[in-house]
Write a structure and sequence with these properties.
heterodimer, A: mainly beta, B: alpha/beta, 7-stranded parallel beta sheet, 14 helices, 40% helix
Protein backbone atom coordinates (compact mmCIF):
# COMPACT_ATOMS: atom_id res chain seq x y z
CA UNK A 1 0.00 0.00 0.00
CA UNK A 2 2.83 2.35 0.84
CA UNK A 3 4.45 1.50 -2.44
CA UNK A 4 1.31 2.24 -4.38
CA UNK A 5 0.94 5.56 -2.61
CA UNK A 6 4.50 6.41 -3.38
CA UNK A 7 4.11 5.53 -7.03
CA UNK A 8 0.85 7.41 -7.23
CA UNK A 9 2.32 10.53 -5.68
CA UNK A 10 5.08 10.72 -8.27
CA UNK A 11 3.05 10.20 -11.37
CA UNK A 12 4.05 13.66 -12.56
CA UNK A 13 7.69 13.36 -11.61
CA UNK A 14 8.78 11.27 -14.59
CA UNK A 15 6.75 13.11 -17.16
CA UNK A 16 7.72 16.65 -16.21
CA UNK A 17 10.96 18.39 -17.08
CA UNK A 18 12.28 19.96 -14.98
CA UNK A 19 12.61 18.62 -12.38
CA UNK A 20 14.17 15.57 -13.95
CA UNK A 21 13.51 12.43 -11.90
CA UNK A 22 16.69 10.60 -10.84
CA UNK A 23 15.56 7.49 -12.73
CA UNK A 24 15.14 9.43 -15.94
CA UNK A 25 18.38 11.32 -15.34
CA UNK A 26 20.49 8.21 -14.78
CA UNK A 27 18.90 6.01 -17.43
CA UNK A 28 18.50 8.55 -20.22
CA UNK A 29 21.12 11.17 -19.36
CA UNK A 30 21.13 14.74 -18.10
CA UNK A 31 20.43 16.03 -14.58
CA UNK A 32 18.99 19.36 -13.58
CA UNK A 33 21.61 22.07 -12.97
CA UNK A 34 23.28 21.65 -9.59
CA UNK A 35 21.52 18.35 -8.85
CA UNK A 36 23.28 15.08 -7.98
CA UNK A 37 21.82 11.79 -9.19
CA UNK A 38 23.21 8.31 -8.63
CA UNK A 39 22.51 4.83 -9.89
CA UNK A 40 23.46 1.33 -8.86
CA UNK A 41 22.72 -1.81 -10.88
CA UNK A 42 23.43 -5.44 -10.15
CA UNK A 43 22.85 -8.41 -12.40
CA UNK A 44 24.39 -11.12 -14.52
CA UNK A 45 27.00 -10.57 -15.69
CA UNK A 46 27.10 -6.79 -15.38
CA UNK A 47 27.19 -4.51 -12.34
CA UNK A 48 27.30 -0.73 -12.57
CA UNK A 49 27.70 2.31 -10.33
CA UNK A 50 27.20 5.86 -11.59
CA UNK A 51 27.10 9.35 -10.12
CA UNK A 52 26.39 12.53 -12.08
CA UNK A 53 25.78 16.23 -11.50
CA UNK A 54 23.94 18.59 -13.79
CA UNK A 55 25.51 21.81 -15.09
CA UNK A 56 24.06 24.64 -17.09
CA UNK A 57 22.54 24.00 -20.50
CA UNK A 58 22.02 20.32 -19.72
CA UNK A 59 25.67 19.28 -19.71
CA UNK A 60 26.04 16.53 -17.12
CA UNK A 61 29.47 15.14 -16.20
CA UNK A 62 29.52 11.73 -14.55
CA UNK A 63 31.76 9.04 -13.20
CA UNK A 64 30.87 5.39 -13.56
CA UNK A 65 32.28 1.93 -13.16
CA UNK A 66 31.00 -1.19 -14.85
CA UNK A 67 32.11 -4.72 -14.12
CA UNK A 68 31.30 -8.07 -15.73
CA UNK A 69 31.48 -10.98 -13.28
CA UNK A 70 33.71 -8.68 -11.23
CA UNK A 71 36.47 -9.65 -13.68
CA UNK A 72 36.15 -7.14 -16.52
CA UNK A 73 36.24 -3.63 -15.00
CA UNK A 74 35.89 -0.32 -16.76
CA UNK A 75 36.04 2.85 -14.65
CA UNK A 76 35.32 5.97 -16.72
CA UNK A 77 34.54 9.65 -16.64
CA UNK A 78 32.12 11.13 -19.11
CA UNK A 79 29.61 13.74 -19.99
CA UNK A 80 26.05 13.49 -21.23
CA UNK A 81 23.87 16.07 -22.94
CA UNK A 82 20.12 15.78 -23.46
CA UNK A 83 19.12 16.71 -26.99
CA UNK A 84 15.41 16.19 -26.42
CA UNK A 85 14.07 16.63 -22.93
CA UNK A 86 10.32 16.37 -23.02
CA UNK A 87 8.03 13.35 -22.85
CA UNK A 88 10.56 11.80 -25.16
CA UNK A 89 14.13 11.99 -23.89
CA UNK A 90 17.17 11.57 -26.14
CA UNK A 91 20.73 12.10 -24.95
CA UNK A 92 24.23 11.60 -26.19
CA UNK A 93 27.19 10.75 -24.01
CA UNK A 94 30.92 10.30 -24.31
CA UNK A 95 33.34 8.64 -21.91
CA UNK A 96 37.04 8.11 -21.40
CA UNK A 97 38.05 5.18 -19.27
CA UNK A 98 40.37 2.30 -18.62
CA UNK A 99 39.61 -1.37 -19.25
CA UNK A 100 41.09 -3.85 -16.79
CA UNK A 101 40.20 -7.50 -17.30
CA UNK A 102 41.69 -10.18 -15.09
CA UNK A 103 41.50 -13.95 -15.27
CA UNK A 104 42.53 -16.25 -18.10
CA UNK A 105 41.73 -13.72 -20.81
CA UNK A 106 43.43 -10.80 -19.11
CA UNK A 107 43.61 -7.56 -21.07
CA UNK A 108 43.88 -3.88 -20.32
CA UNK A 109 44.09 -0.54 -22.01
CA UNK A 110 42.63 2.95 -22.39
CA UNK A 111 39.16 3.13 -23.85
CA UNK A 112 36.66 5.64 -25.12
CA UNK A 113 33.00 5.38 -25.95
CA UNK A 114 30.12 7.19 -27.58
CA UNK A 115 26.51 6.32 -26.85
CA UNK A 116 22.93 7.44 -27.22
CA UNK A 117 20.10 6.82 -24.82
CA UNK A 118 16.43 7.23 -25.54
CA UNK A 119 13.31 6.92 -23.41
CA UNK A 120 9.72 7.95 -23.16
CA UNK A 121 8.01 8.84 -19.93
CA UNK A 122 4.58 7.33 -19.47
CA UNK A 123 3.22 8.12 -16.02
CA UNK A 124 5.60 6.55 -13.54
CA UNK A 125 7.31 4.30 -16.05
CA UNK A 126 10.12 4.97 -18.46
CA UNK A 127 10.92 2.46 -21.20
CA UNK A 128 14.48 3.15 -22.32
CA UNK A 129 17.01 2.08 -24.91
CA UNK A 130 20.77 2.45 -24.90
CA UNK A 131 23.16 1.94 -27.81
CA UNK A 132 26.84 2.73 -27.92
CA UNK A 133 30.24 1.89 -29.28
CA UNK A 134 33.29 1.41 -27.07
CA UNK A 135 36.85 1.23 -28.34
CA UNK A 136 39.90 0.03 -26.43
CA UNK A 137 43.57 0.19 -27.31
CA UNK A 138 45.33 -2.99 -26.21
CA UNK A 139 49.05 -3.58 -26.35
CA UNK A 140 49.82 -7.26 -26.98
CA UNK A 141 53.29 -8.20 -25.79
CA UNK A 142 55.12 -11.21 -27.21
CA UNK A 143 58.32 -12.28 -25.47
CA UNK A 144 60.52 -14.46 -27.69
CA UNK A 145 63.17 -16.44 -25.87
CA UNK A 146 66.23 -16.40 -28.15
CA UNK A 147 69.85 -17.43 -27.74
CA UNK A 148 70.71 -13.74 -27.51
CA UNK A 149 68.17 -13.13 -24.76
CA UNK A 150 64.51 -12.16 -24.63
CA UNK A 151 63.14 -10.21 -27.56
CA UNK A 152 60.06 -8.18 -26.63
CA UNK A 153 57.59 -7.25 -29.33
CA UNK A 154 54.67 -4.94 -28.53
CA UNK A 155 51.80 -4.76 -31.00
CA UNK A 156 48.76 -2.46 -30.69
CA UNK A 157 45.35 -4.05 -31.08
CA UNK A 158 41.94 -2.43 -31.36
CA UNK A 159 39.19 -3.91 -29.21
CA UNK A 160 35.63 -3.03 -30.15
CA UNK A 161 32.59 -3.53 -28.00
CA UNK A 162 29.07 -2.54 -28.93
CA UNK A 163 27.02 -1.66 -25.88
CA UNK A 164 23.27 -1.98 -25.72
CA UNK A 165 20.48 -2.21 -23.20
CA UNK A 166 16.75 -1.94 -23.03
CA UNK A 167 14.60 -1.82 -19.96
CA UNK A 168 11.92 -0.20 -17.93
CA UNK A 169 12.44 2.44 -15.23
CA UNK A 170 9.85 2.98 -12.51
CA UNK A 171 9.63 5.98 -10.18
CA UNK A 172 9.28 5.17 -6.49
CA UNK A 173 8.67 8.58 -5.02
CA UNK A 174 10.32 11.82 -6.00
CA UNK A 175 13.89 10.81 -5.24
CA UNK A 176 13.97 7.06 -5.73
CA UNK A 177 13.42 4.75 -8.64
CA UNK A 178 14.37 1.38 -10.00
CA UNK A 179 14.72 -0.32 -13.33
CA UNK A 180 14.87 -3.80 -14.76
CA UNK A 181 16.69 -4.29 -18.01
CA UNK A 182 18.29 -6.55 -20.56
CA UNK A 183 21.96 -5.93 -21.24
CA UNK A 184 22.78 -6.60 -24.89
CA UNK A 185 26.47 -5.97 -25.34
CA UNK A 186 28.63 -7.43 -28.07
CA UNK A 187 31.98 -7.65 -26.33
CA UNK A 188 35.10 -7.82 -28.48
CA UNK A 189 33.33 -8.00 -31.83
CA UNK A 190 33.12 -10.44 -33.62
CA UNK A 191 33.24 -12.91 -30.73
CA UNK A 192 29.93 -14.20 -29.45
CA UNK A 193 28.33 -12.49 -26.44
CA UNK A 194 25.34 -13.57 -24.44
CA UNK A 195 22.75 -11.09 -23.12
CA UNK A 196 22.50 -10.25 -19.45
CA UNK A 197 19.89 -8.93 -17.03
CA UNK A 198 20.07 -6.36 -14.27
CA UNK A 199 18.07 -4.70 -11.55
CA UNK A 200 18.93 -1.09 -10.88
CA UNK A 201 18.26 1.46 -8.18
CA UNK A 202 18.41 5.23 -8.68
CA UNK A 203 18.53 7.96 -6.08
CA UNK A 204 19.03 11.67 -6.43
CA UNK A 205 17.65 15.13 -6.45
CA UNK A 206 20.15 16.39 -3.87
CA UNK A 207 21.77 19.75 -4.46
CA UNK B 1 1.78 -45.28 -17.44
CA UNK B 2 2.28 -42.93 -20.35
CA UNK B 3 3.79 -40.43 -17.95
CA UNK B 4 6.07 -42.93 -16.26
CA UNK B 5 7.97 -43.88 -19.42
CA UNK B 6 9.24 -40.37 -20.23
CA UNK B 7 10.23 -39.91 -16.58
CA UNK B 8 12.22 -43.15 -16.63
CA UNK B 9 13.90 -42.07 -19.83
CA UNK B 10 14.90 -38.79 -18.22
CA UNK B 11 16.48 -40.53 -15.24
CA UNK B 12 19.00 -42.85 -16.76
CA UNK B 13 17.07 -45.18 -19.02
CA UNK B 14 17.47 -43.04 -22.10
CA UNK B 15 18.05 -44.93 -25.34
CA UNK B 16 21.47 -44.57 -26.95
CA UNK B 17 21.87 -41.72 -29.46
CA UNK B 18 20.21 -42.48 -32.73
CA UNK B 19 22.82 -41.09 -35.08
CA UNK B 20 22.97 -38.45 -37.75
CA UNK B 21 20.42 -37.86 -40.50
CA UNK B 22 21.92 -38.20 -43.97
CA UNK B 23 19.97 -38.35 -47.22
CA UNK B 24 16.97 -39.87 -45.52
CA UNK B 25 18.96 -42.42 -43.54
CA UNK B 26 20.03 -42.26 -39.90
CA UNK B 27 23.72 -43.11 -39.59
CA UNK B 28 25.47 -44.11 -36.37
CA UNK B 29 28.43 -41.89 -35.51
CA UNK B 30 31.77 -42.35 -33.78
CA UNK B 31 33.85 -39.23 -33.11
CA UNK B 32 37.42 -40.47 -32.87
CA UNK B 33 38.87 -37.20 -31.61
CA UNK B 34 37.74 -35.72 -28.31
CA UNK B 35 39.66 -34.36 -25.35
CA UNK B 36 39.14 -34.55 -21.65
CA UNK B 37 41.41 -33.37 -18.90
CA UNK B 38 42.07 -31.14 -15.96
CA UNK B 39 41.84 -27.43 -16.75
CA UNK B 40 44.66 -26.72 -14.31
CA UNK B 41 47.05 -28.93 -16.31
CA UNK B 42 46.43 -27.06 -19.55
CA UNK B 43 49.15 -24.52 -20.35
CA UNK B 44 48.16 -20.89 -19.75
CA UNK B 45 48.58 -19.79 -23.36
CA UNK B 46 46.38 -22.67 -24.49
CA UNK B 47 43.84 -21.87 -21.78
CA UNK B 48 43.57 -18.44 -23.38
CA UNK B 49 42.86 -19.95 -26.79
CA UNK B 50 40.22 -22.28 -25.37
CA UNK B 51 38.60 -19.63 -23.14
CA UNK B 52 38.52 -17.31 -26.12
CA UNK B 53 36.16 -19.76 -27.82
CA UNK B 54 33.64 -19.48 -25.00
CA UNK B 55 30.88 -16.91 -25.52
CA UNK B 56 31.10 -13.82 -23.33
CA UNK B 57 30.93 -13.76 -20.33
CA UNK B 58 31.92 -17.42 -19.79
CA UNK B 59 35.45 -16.79 -21.04
CA UNK B 60 36.01 -14.41 -18.13
CA UNK B 61 35.86 -17.24 -15.60
CA UNK B 62 36.24 -20.34 -17.78
CA UNK B 63 37.22 -22.85 -15.10
CA UNK B 64 33.71 -23.98 -14.22
CA UNK B 65 32.42 -24.29 -17.75
CA UNK B 66 35.65 -25.95 -18.91
CA UNK B 67 35.45 -28.48 -16.10
CA UNK B 68 31.86 -29.35 -16.96
CA UNK B 69 32.62 -29.71 -20.67
CA UNK B 70 35.95 -31.51 -20.25
CA UNK B 71 34.81 -34.06 -17.70
CA UNK B 72 33.83 -37.54 -18.85
CA UNK B 73 30.24 -36.78 -17.92
CA UNK B 74 30.42 -33.53 -19.88
CA UNK B 75 31.80 -35.36 -22.92
CA UNK B 76 29.01 -37.92 -22.72
CA UNK B 77 26.48 -35.10 -22.52
CA UNK B 78 27.93 -33.51 -25.64
CA UNK B 79 27.76 -36.88 -27.42
CA UNK B 80 24.15 -37.35 -26.38
CA UNK B 81 23.20 -33.88 -27.59
CA UNK B 82 24.85 -34.56 -30.94
CA UNK B 83 23.42 -38.06 -31.38
CA UNK B 84 26.91 -39.58 -31.34
CA UNK B 85 27.33 -43.12 -30.09
CA UNK B 86 30.95 -43.23 -28.96
CA UNK B 87 34.18 -41.27 -29.03
CA UNK B 88 37.92 -41.50 -28.69
CA UNK B 89 39.48 -39.56 -25.83
CA UNK B 90 43.13 -38.57 -26.06
CA UNK B 91 45.89 -38.56 -23.50
CA UNK B 92 48.27 -35.67 -24.12
CA UNK B 93 51.87 -35.13 -23.02
CA UNK B 94 52.81 -31.75 -24.44
CA UNK B 95 53.86 -29.57 -21.49
CA UNK B 96 55.59 -27.03 -23.77
CA UNK B 97 52.48 -26.36 -25.84
CA UNK B 98 48.97 -27.54 -25.00
CA UNK B 99 49.50 -29.27 -21.64
CA UNK B 100 49.05 -32.69 -20.11
CA UNK B 101 46.21 -35.22 -19.80
CA UNK B 102 47.74 -38.37 -18.36
CA UNK B 103 47.08 -41.96 -19.40
CA UNK B 104 45.74 -42.69 -15.93
CA UNK B 105 43.30 -39.77 -16.21
CA UNK B 106 42.03 -40.98 -19.61
CA UNK B 107 41.74 -44.58 -18.44
CA UNK B 108 39.71 -43.46 -15.43
CA UNK B 109 37.52 -41.23 -17.58
CA UNK B 110 36.88 -44.07 -20.04
CA UNK B 111 35.77 -46.22 -17.10
CA UNK B 112 32.73 -43.90 -16.83
CA UNK B 113 31.25 -45.60 -19.88
CA UNK B 114 33.72 -48.04 -21.50
CA UNK B 115 31.37 -48.88 -24.34
CA UNK B 116 31.21 -45.25 -25.46
CA UNK B 117 34.53 -43.73 -24.39
CA UNK B 118 37.60 -45.21 -26.12
CA UNK B 119 40.92 -44.25 -24.54
CA UNK B 120 44.03 -43.25 -26.52
CA UNK B 121 47.30 -43.47 -24.60
CA UNK B 122 50.31 -41.25 -25.15
CA UNK B 123 53.75 -40.62 -23.74
CA UNK B 124 56.25 -37.87 -23.11
CA UNK B 125 59.08 -37.62 -25.64
CA UNK B 126 61.04 -34.99 -23.72
CA UNK B 127 64.60 -35.91 -22.72
CA UNK B 128 64.20 -39.02 -24.87
CA UNK B 129 67.79 -40.22 -24.56
CA UNK B 130 67.40 -40.70 -20.81
CA UNK B 131 63.65 -41.09 -20.38
CA UNK B 132 62.72 -42.93 -23.57
CA UNK B 133 62.86 -46.48 -22.22
CA UNK B 134 60.78 -45.60 -19.17
CA UNK B 135 58.24 -43.78 -21.34
CA UNK B 136 57.94 -46.72 -23.72
CA UNK B 137 57.42 -49.03 -20.76
CA UNK B 138 54.70 -46.73 -19.45
CA UNK B 139 53.02 -46.66 -22.85
CA UNK B 140 53.12 -50.45 -23.02
CA UNK B 141 51.53 -50.63 -19.59
CA UNK B 142 48.86 -48.07 -20.46
CA UNK B 143 47.90 -50.01 -23.58
CA UNK B 144 47.39 -53.15 -21.52
CA UNK B 145 44.19 -51.58 -20.19
CA UNK B 146 41.16 -52.83 -22.12
CA UNK B 147 39.88 -49.25 -22.23
CA UNK B 148 42.96 -47.90 -24.06
CA UNK B 149 42.71 -48.91 -27.70
CA UNK B 150 44.79 -46.31 -29.53
CA UNK B 151 47.84 -44.06 -29.31
CA UNK B 152 47.87 -40.30 -29.69
CA UNK B 153 50.94 -38.41 -30.92
CA UNK B 154 51.40 -34.81 -32.01
CA UNK B 155 54.87 -34.13 -33.34
CA UNK B 156 54.22 -30.39 -33.62
CA UNK B 157 52.99 -30.14 -30.03
CA UNK B 158 55.60 -32.51 -28.61
CA UNK B 159 58.56 -31.14 -30.55
CA UNK B 160 59.87 -34.28 -32.27
CA UNK B 161 60.38 -34.84 -35.97
CA UNK B 162 58.18 -37.19 -37.96
CA UNK B 163 61.20 -38.71 -39.68
CA UNK B 164 63.30 -39.30 -36.56
CA UNK B 165 63.87 -43.09 -36.27
CA UNK B 166 64.80 -42.81 -32.58
CA UNK B 167 61.07 -42.75 -31.85
CA UNK B 168 60.06 -45.69 -34.02
CA UNK B 169 59.83 -47.97 -31.01
CA UNK B 170 56.55 -46.17 -30.27
CA UNK B 171 55.12 -47.51 -33.52
CA UNK B 172 56.30 -51.03 -32.71
CA UNK B 173 54.60 -51.00 -29.30
CA UNK B 174 51.39 -49.71 -30.90
CA UNK B 175 51.46 -52.52 -33.45
CA UNK B 176 52.07 -55.11 -30.73
CA UNK B 177 48.85 -53.96 -29.04
CA UNK B 178 46.97 -53.57 -32.35
CA UNK B 179 46.47 -49.95 -31.30
CA UNK B 180 46.12 -47.51 -34.21
CA UNK B 181 48.14 -44.30 -33.87
CA UNK B 182 46.41 -40.99 -34.28
CA UNK B 183 48.88 -38.27 -35.32
CA UNK B 184 48.34 -34.54 -35.53
CA UNK B 185 49.43 -33.43 -39.00
CA UNK B 186 49.63 -29.87 -40.30
CA UNK B 187 50.44 -26.81 -38.24
CA UNK B 188 48.75 -26.06 -34.94
CA UNK B 189 46.99 -22.88 -33.82
CA UNK B 190 48.31 -23.23 -30.29
CA UNK B 191 51.27 -21.27 -28.94
CA UNK B 192 54.49 -23.16 -28.29
CA UNK B 193 54.11 -25.63 -31.17
CA UNK B 194 56.58 -26.41 -33.96
CA UNK B 195 55.47 -25.18 -37.39
CA UNK B 196 58.32 -26.43 -39.61
CA UNK B 197 57.55 -29.16 -42.19
CA UNK B 198 59.42 -32.02 -40.43
CA UNK B 199 56.96 -31.64 -37.54
CA UNK B 200 53.82 -31.00 -39.58
CA UNK B 201 54.08 -32.37 -43.13
CA UNK B 202 52.97 -36.03 -43.28
CA UNK B 203 55.43 -36.60 -46.14
CA UNK B 204 58.10 -36.76 -43.42
CA UNK B 205 56.22 -39.69 -41.92
CA UNK B 206 56.48 -41.80 -45.05
CA UNK B 207 59.67 -43.69 -44.04
CA UNK B 208 58.02 -44.70 -40.75
CA UNK B 209 54.85 -45.77 -42.57
CA UNK B 210 56.89 -47.91 -44.94
CA UNK B 211 58.96 -49.41 -42.12
CA UNK B 212 55.93 -50.31 -40.00
CA UNK B 213 53.33 -51.99 -42.20
CA UNK B 214 51.62 -53.52 -39.17
CA UNK B 215 51.11 -50.13 -37.53
CA UNK B 216 48.01 -48.11 -38.43
CA UNK B 217 48.65 -44.37 -38.87
CA UNK B 218 45.66 -42.01 -38.78
CA UNK B 219 46.63 -38.63 -40.23
CA UNK B 220 44.67 -36.17 -38.13
CA UNK B 221 43.48 -32.84 -39.54
CA UNK B 222 44.49 -33.95 -43.07
CA UNK B 223 47.65 -31.84 -42.87
CA UNK B 224 45.67 -28.60 -42.57
CA UNK B 225 47.65 -25.40 -42.01
CA UNK B 226 45.93 -23.76 -39.04
CA UNK B 227 48.45 -20.93 -38.84
CA UNK B 228 47.99 -19.61 -42.38
CA UNK B 229 44.39 -20.83 -42.67
CA UNK B 230 45.24 -22.86 -45.76
CA UNK B 231 44.60 -26.36 -47.05
CA UNK B 232 48.20 -27.27 -46.25
CA UNK B 233 49.25 -30.84 -46.93
CA UNK B 234 45.85 -32.29 -47.83
CA UNK B 235 47.13 -33.71 -51.12
CA UNK B 236 50.01 -35.46 -49.36
CA UNK B 237 47.68 -36.97 -46.77
CA UNK B 238 45.34 -38.31 -49.46
CA UNK B 239 48.30 -39.68 -51.45
CA UNK B 240 49.63 -41.54 -48.42
CA UNK B 241 46.21 -43.01 -47.67
CA UNK B 242 45.88 -44.14 -51.28
CA UNK B 243 49.39 -45.59 -51.36
CA UNK B 244 49.61 -47.46 -48.06
CA UNK B 245 47.05 -49.86 -46.59
CA UNK B 246 48.08 -48.83 -43.04
CA UNK B 247 47.31 -45.10 -43.49
CA UNK B 248 43.96 -43.53 -42.60
CA UNK B 249 42.62 -39.99 -42.54
CA UNK B 250 40.73 -37.81 -40.08
CA UNK B 251 39.14 -34.40 -40.82
CA UNK B 252 38.78 -32.74 -37.41
CA UNK B 253 38.98 -29.03 -36.52
CA UNK B 254 39.73 -27.74 -40.02
CA UNK B 255 36.01 -27.30 -40.67
CA UNK B 256 35.06 -25.50 -37.46
CA UNK B 257 33.32 -22.14 -37.51
CA UNK B 258 36.56 -20.51 -36.39
CA UNK B 259 38.83 -22.18 -38.95
CA UNK B 260 36.37 -22.42 -41.82
CA UNK B 261 33.69 -19.73 -41.42
CA UNK B 262 32.62 -19.96 -45.06
CA UNK B 263 32.58 -23.78 -45.08
CA UNK B 264 35.20 -24.09 -47.79
CA UNK B 265 37.96 -26.28 -46.32
CA UNK B 266 35.87 -29.20 -45.11
CA UNK B 267 33.94 -29.67 -48.38
CA UNK B 268 37.24 -29.35 -50.26
CA UNK B 269 38.80 -32.02 -48.04
CA UNK B 270 35.83 -34.36 -48.39
CA UNK B 271 35.92 -33.95 -52.13
CA UNK B 272 39.66 -34.62 -52.28
CA UNK B 273 39.22 -37.79 -50.24
CA UNK B 274 36.42 -38.98 -52.50
CA UNK B 275 38.29 -38.15 -55.69
CA UNK B 276 41.32 -39.91 -54.26
CA UNK B 277 39.24 -43.05 -53.86
CA UNK B 278 39.92 -43.31 -50.13
CA UNK B 279 36.54 -42.80 -48.49
CA UNK B 280 37.12 -46.24 -46.97
CA UNK B 281 40.13 -44.67 -45.18
CA UNK B 282 38.34 -41.68 -43.61
CA UNK B 283 37.54 -41.81 -39.88
CA UNK B 284 35.35 -39.02 -38.56
CA UNK B 285 36.59 -36.76 -35.73
CA UNK B 286 35.80 -33.28 -34.46
CA UNK B 287 38.56 -32.28 -31.95
CA UNK B 288 35.92 -31.35 -29.41
CA UNK B 289 34.48 -30.65 -27.01
CA UNK B 290 36.12 -27.14 -27.05
CA UNK B 291 32.88 -25.35 -26.05
CA UNK B 292 29.29 -26.43 -25.39
CA UNK B 293 27.62 -27.58 -28.59
CA UNK B 294 30.82 -27.71 -30.66
CA UNK B 295 30.67 -31.50 -31.11
CA UNK B 296 27.18 -31.35 -32.60
CA UNK B 297 27.91 -28.35 -34.78
CA UNK B 298 31.00 -29.99 -36.23
CA UNK B 299 29.01 -33.08 -37.10
CA UNK B 300 26.40 -30.93 -38.86
CA UNK B 301 29.13 -29.21 -40.86
CA UNK B 302 30.63 -32.56 -41.80
CA UNK B 303 27.27 -33.88 -42.98
CA UNK B 304 26.84 -30.80 -45.17
CA UNK B 305 30.36 -31.20 -46.55
CA UNK B 306 29.78 -34.86 -47.40
CA UNK B 307 26.47 -34.08 -49.04
CA UNK B 308 27.91 -31.27 -51.16
CA UNK B 309 30.79 -33.57 -52.15
CA UNK B 310 28.42 -36.25 -53.34
CA UNK B 311 29.06 -38.91 -50.69
CA UNK B 312 26.69 -41.82 -50.98
CA UNK B 313 24.93 -43.09 -47.89
CA UNK B 314 27.37 -46.01 -47.79
CA UNK B 315 30.40 -43.72 -48.01
CA UNK B 316 29.02 -41.45 -45.30
CA UNK B 317 28.24 -44.43 -43.07
CA UNK B 318 31.80 -45.71 -43.49
CA UNK B 319 33.25 -42.29 -42.67
CA UNK B 320 31.06 -41.77 -39.61
CA UNK B 321 31.47 -45.18 -38.01
CA UNK B 322 32.22 -48.16 -40.25
CA UNK B 323 35.87 -47.38 -40.94
CA UNK B 324 36.53 -46.72 -37.24
CA UNK B 325 34.93 -50.02 -36.23
CA UNK B 326 36.94 -51.95 -38.80
CA UNK B 327 40.29 -50.33 -37.95
CA UNK B 328 39.85 -50.60 -34.18
CA UNK B 329 38.38 -54.10 -34.26
CA UNK B 330 35.15 -53.02 -32.58
CA UNK B 331 31.57 -53.82 -33.57
CA UNK B 332 29.93 -51.21 -35.73
CA UNK B 333 27.36 -49.11 -33.93
CA UNK B 334 23.86 -50.30 -34.54
CA UNK B 335 25.21 -53.68 -35.62
CA UNK B 336 25.48 -56.95 -33.79
Amino acid sequence: MLGLLAVGSTAAALSAAPPIHPTAAVLTGGSDPGVWDTGLAAGFPWHRVRAQRGLRNGWTPFVETSAALLTRWRPAVGVSLPWINRVWRLSGEATLGWLEQGGTLSERGPSASLAMTMGRTRGVVLPYLHAGSEHTLHIDRVIIDTAAGDVIEDAPRHGWTLTGALGLGIALGGRWGLDVGLDLPWVNVPKVSLPGVHLGLQFGGAR
Amino acid sequence: MRRIIPILLAFGCAPPPEGAPYKGATLPVTDVHLHTGDWALIRGSTQRVLAGNFPFPFGLQPEGLAASVLSAEGVLGELDDAGIGRAGMFAVYAPRSVGVATNAFIDEAARTDPDRLIGFASLSVDDWARQGDAQLEALDLALSSPRMRGVKLAHAHQHFRMDDPRYWAIYEIAAAHAAPIYLHTGTSPFPGTQAEPPYTDPAYLEPAIQAHPDTVFILGHLGHDFIRDETGELATAVRLAASYPNVYLEPSALGSAGSDPDEVFLPEAMEAVREGGVTDKMIYGSDGPQSPGFVGRYLERTLRAMESSGYTIEEAAATLDGNFARVFGLPALGGD
